[in-house]
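Records of this kind hold a single protein each, on a pair of labelled lines. With that in mind, the following record should read easily:
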Amino acid sequence: SLSFKMERKTIDLDQGWDYMQTGITKLKRILEGLPEPQFDSEQYMMLYTTIYNMCTQKPPHDYSQQLYDKYREAFEEYIHSTVLPALREKHDEYMLRELVKRWSNHKVMVRWLSRFFYYLDRYFIARRSLPPLNEVGLTCFRDLVYNELHSKVKDAVIALVDKEREGEQIDRALLKNVLDIYVEIGMGQMERYEEDFESFMLLDSASYYSRKASSWIQEDSCPDYMLKSEECLKKERERVAHYLHSSSEPKLVEKVQHELLVVYANQLLEKEHSGCRALLRDDKVDDLSRMYRLYHKIVKGLEPVANIFKQHVTAEGNALVQQAEDTATNHAANTASVQEQVLIRKVIELHDKYMVYVVECFQNHTLFHKALKEAFEIFCNKTVAGSSSAELLATFCDNILKKGGSEKLSDEAIEDTLEKVVKLLAYISDKDLFAEFYRKKLARRLLFDRSANDDHERSILTKLKQQCGGQFTSKMEGMVTDLTLARENQNSFEEYLGNNPAANPGIDLTVTVLTTGFWPSYKSFDINLPAEMVKCVEVFKGFYETKTKHRKLTWIYSLGTCHLNGKFDTKPIELVVSTYQAAVLLLFNTTDKLSYTDILTQLNLSHEDLVRLLHSLSCARYKILLKEPSTKTVSQSDSFEFNSKFTDRMRRIKIPLPPVDERKKVVEDVDKDRRYAIDAAIVRIMKSRKVLGHQQLVSECVEQLSRMFKPDIKAIKKRMEDLITRDYLERDKENPNMFRYLA
């Protein structure tokens, strides 16, 4: 076998570099597109090995540092001799194309040279912590080419962008490549792109759109202006997608929005025949949706839109209230009440309409929910012809729920309407007043069997409970339950009568037993009942005592009804009357003629009540009694006799009593309850806080009570004074504005 021992010859610097220079020249020729074959693997290996050898020779022949410097000089020489002259003779788009080509070539050159010099990267550079070859190559381009040209390049790019904005076709791919240079030259940082290009591009965009906006705002209607703005924003986003860096999108969009939408917001929204008010007036749903889309991305951009929306809804609502007020003033009472019902129906429709706007045009945004709520609170708390909205709403419900009400609706429609009424109630500040009116009317429906459907009665109570809490509906729920219990009670009474022949009321008797606390308070006074009725009362008492000894029955005759047989000359007629009317009529069974005073003494009634009763029987439509003298009013000197000549085409007639205005009583009852509620709130607050300033106590009190009513500040102060006299609170000796709770 033969053994070889190779002696490696030392390569000196000039000789080695001359050899490397041939490789570099070949590379430049390839890059310049001159006829030159590609590197084969042998050539590549020779170049690599030359560098390897020159770096691994023993000192002083280790040429690592010199080769590191020559690597950089190779780029500098090529840039000065070839690249810069080629770029300096071209302008605008041609310069951009040349730059893209030169940058691409430069990157190829860096890739090849750093492969030849790879050994430097691995050992020499790592040990000395010098910039790596790749970075050195790119830095040469940055320092010599980019720094000289970036300003001219930026101007050329911006000019092309503006051309495109004006509708011309441009080479987007070229711009993408140019802008990539700004990004890549930063070597992982975005500063070059941001400072040398983006900041100027944003300024130019702002002034471009500022010019556009100033002429569009003069020429275009609000919808057209918004269409153009939306289109511009879309185009700018596309621009980012095609050639700008993605980080520019929010900044560019913000600039365009500012110039098109923020600067001219007021002028645009307030445009006389096409601004936000006109769009709402003419139901321009698409334009309003566009307005929302454009402005919801802008900080506080929606506030003026929501404000106009609130003003518009308020004006529409006020107009409805005014219309109802005018009709009520100009017409008789019965049309007025119909008008008030029409008003509630229209307010519900108004709410439906604008709720659709809030949900669909304004995407359920809280600002618009708030605007709608505030608008409705303004006009839903106005009075119409002396009736508060709380009363109107209760009457509206009554009309839907009672038999033969003016609203003829299907079950679904009733459910739907009740749902909407409860929503309206949210806007009414005197919810306690609504509850009291509602209870009064519910009582009439239940007691006089006027309720059209039990399910609907329960359903609205469930809805009210969800909206206002259990306390709000507990009494009403109690009333509905009472009626069911009362029916069972009546059945046991009839059973009791069947089993006890001795207990016989002598007439058909139905008694409804109610729980005092649930029902409205009724004026009840002891009347001297006719003997027939006294017997009934005694028999029922006997039955009731078999069931319980702990409850006291109080009879409310004012709510009772009687069916009497009137034996008139021509034919008998059944008269449906109240218990009091019956008591008056039964007096005439034993005597023909009675004076006002006789009746008053025998029945033990007040003047006020007796006048009402006698008026209904002698001065109204059905004259069962003849009055002397025959005038239209009842006075204390009149006398009355049974009118045997009375007749009517019907076999059964109902003789109504003139209605009593319940409004005053309801308001008084509610005021009384409010005093208790304020007392309770003050005591609750003071109990937990012990010491509190006047202002804070008042505001906490208002906050606690506002779910049911808007307490009057004067009323709160009055209650505070009252609680001081009753020793619940005391004023601080030093500071009369501080209160202390007395345990």
Observations:
- DSSP finds 28 helices and nine strands in the chain.
- The beta strands are 561-567, 572-578, 593-595, 625-628, 639-642, 652-654, 691-693, 729-731, 738-741.
- The chain has a mean pLDDT of 89.
- Residues 225 and 231 are 10 Å apart (CA to CA).
